[in-house]
Amino acid sequence: MEQGYVTKRMMMMILLLPLLISSSSGEAVNSSENVGVCVSKGGRSHQPYELEGKLPESADLEFRDLNMCGMFHEKTCCSASRMLSSSLALQNLATHGEASKDCLFWFELLECSICHPDVGVQSGPLRVCASFCDTVFEACSDAYFNTSDSTNQVIVPCVASNDTICEKASKLETNGTAFCEAVGFTVVQPAGDSVEEPCYGSKRVLETVVPVVESLMKTVRLQDRNYELLILDLQTCLKIAVVVLESTMIYRFFYQLVRDARRLRRRNRIRRRF
After folding, report:
1. 239 lies in some domain
2. pLDDT in tens, 31-83
3. Is-contact 155 96, C-beta < 8 A?
4. How many Å apart are CA 94 and CA 176, to the nearest integer?
5. Structural domain includes residue 230
6. Is the distance from CB of 20 to CB of 209 less than 8 angstroms?
7. How many domains are there within the chain?
């Protein structure tokens, strides 16, 4: 099942990669004006880029070993030390937050927003689309979070502690905007006629990608089912092999007993003759 999840996650990330940053017209914000060197964003728990003042580059091995933000590994301003806290947050969300696979996927896209190459070279703070936050909140509404003492984050994924009380996101926040702001992001609200300013993730992108994602999920579910059947077949073959081996060993054991008994009788006959 884990293999199927990884496959789904990578396929969905590849689809979303060129579409996450978009303008109010729905076109990607990647013009020549935005192509430049890495500019640290500040705010939240965002540490300065190690590539501050340099061009984005391919992720190093240490960053890749974190097993997150894979959709931005080819070109990014991020590094392993920069994303370590985000990696731990995702681990807590999966382990203690009881998050679904969809929640883990969308929350990772949110955490990795700072690693998008276009975001990295833009001046000013990172801004997330309200519609994108709604999608993340919907996916993570049943996941567990707890309040935080951090000045930049009101809530964080549930951690293992006897002194910590974790609650579902839907109990702590009421909507996507409040949720994103609570975990430390700046949210861009739609302007007139529900048109969003340039921001990370857009309503148009989500409406375009979701049907494709649902189709991919069906494909991956079939792959997961085939994988389960393969494992079941292997387990059945293993059981049959064990039974055959045990039967063979038992047969050889009794066969040896019979041979030993015959040899003993022959020796006794020979002794009686003499």
Report:
1. no
2. 444 458 898 887 665 678 888 888 888 988 888 888 888 888 888 998 888 88
3. no
4. 20
5. no
6. no
7. 1
CA 233 from chain centre, in angstroms, equals 28
What secondary structure does DSSP assign to 81-139, as a single string? HHHHHHHHHHHHHHHTS---HHHHHHHHHHHGGGG-HHHHHSSS--EEEHHHHHHHHHH
In a domain, 244, yes or no: no
Residues 6+ apart with CB under 8 A from 52: 37, 38, 39, 40
**23 with 198: CB under 8 angstroms?**
yes
Q: Are strands 127-129 and 186-188 parallel, antiparallel or unpaired?
A: parallel
Say how many residues make up the chain. 274
Of 157 and 66, the structure prediction assigns the larger pLDDT to 157
205-226 pLDDT, tens digit each:
455 445 544 554 555 455 556 6
> Which residues share a beta bridge with 147?
155
Q: What is the residue whose two structure tokens read 């303008």?
A: 23
CA 219: distance to chain centroid?
18
Q: Which domain holds residue 121?
A: 2-210
Arithmetic mean of pLDDT, 195-199: 67
Would residue 229 count as lying in a domain?
A: no
- Residue linked to tokens 């077949």: 233
**Which residue, among 85, 105, 131, 87, has the nearest Cα to 16 in the 3D structure?**
105
